[in-house]
Amino acid sequence: MLQISIVPVTEFQQNCSIVYDDQSNAAVVVDPGGEVEKIAAVVAELGVTVEAIWLTHGHLDHAGGAEAAKQQFGVEIIGSHIADKILLDNIEMAAASYGLTGMHNASPDRWLEEGDSLSIGEHKFEVLHCPGHAPGHVVFVNHANKFILMGDVLFQGSIGRTDLPGGNHQALLDSISQKIMTLDDDYQFVCGHSAPSTVGAERSTNPYLQ
Ligand SMILES: [Zn+2]
Ligand SMILES: [Zn+2]
């Protein structure tokens, strides 16, 4: 079965997700924004083998620890979409503007595009390019389990902010309506901050989508 363990990291309490297959123990670390020792401790506790790092987008709270995690686990950084290169190249500068240290620019080994397919053990994930919160934001969807790694596109009762560099409110609304709201109500998602939700719950109650 596909399992998930969430590790909140950084001052932004970003939900770094360790997603793994409990048969093969194959795992990926999604959005290691920082505190890589803390992530590594949970990985060791779970007894899983990290096979890759996936990034939903290039913001510092999601990608600031990616290079350290790459060293820690000896794996590649996959994603986000190349439109986020400017964000990933400037993580250290962005961190300095928040007075944060220990975050590093990230250089993905592979960029992702709409329709790409990734896997954890035998579990396949479809890649959706969902710009708006960040230009290269991608979302990972496992259709077999109706499970989504949402990043900062859609939250319980809210949507991603669009006032940061590269943000675009209309593009975000279009991404949500064209790529996320086309999924069934019972798709569950975890997001970059705060509590998980479902597509159906947001369709019926999210004030930004009415
Ligand atoms: Zn973000
Ligand atoms: Zn975030």
Per-chain topology:
Blueprint: E1 2-9, E2 14-21, E3 26-30, H1 36-46, E4 49-54, H2 60-63, H3 66-73, E5 77-78, H4 85-88, H5 91-97, E6 117-120, E7 123-129, E8 138-142, E9 147-149, E10 154-155, E11 158-159, H6 169-180, E12 188-190, E13 197-198, H7 199-205
Parallel strand pairs: 3-4, 4-5, 9-12
Antiparallel strand pairs: 1-2, 2-3, 6-7, 7-8, 8-9, 10-11, 12-13
Bound molecules: zinc ion (2 copies).
Question: What does it look like?
Answer:
The protein has 210 residues and is α+β, with helices and mostly antiparallel strands. The chain has a single domain, classed as Metallo-beta-lactamase, Chain A, CATH 3.60.15. It contains seven helices and 13 strands. The strands form three sheets. The protein has a six-stranded mixed sheet. Strands 1-2-3-4-5 form a five-stranded mixed sheet, with helices on one face. A two-stranded antiparallel sheet has the order 10-11. The model has no long low-confidence stretch (mean pLDDT 97). The structure holds zinc ion (ZN) (2 copies). The site of one zinc ion has 8 residues, from helix 2.
* Tally of discrete structural domains: 1
* Number of alpha- plus pi-helical segments: 7
Side-by-side strand order of the widest sheet: 6-7-8-9-12-13
Low-confidence stretches: none
CATH superfamily: Ribonuclease Z/Hydroxyacylglutathione hydrolase-like
The share of residues in helices is 25-40%
Report the sheet-strand fraction.
25-35%
CATH class: Alpha Beta
- Structural class, by secondary structure, is alpha+beta
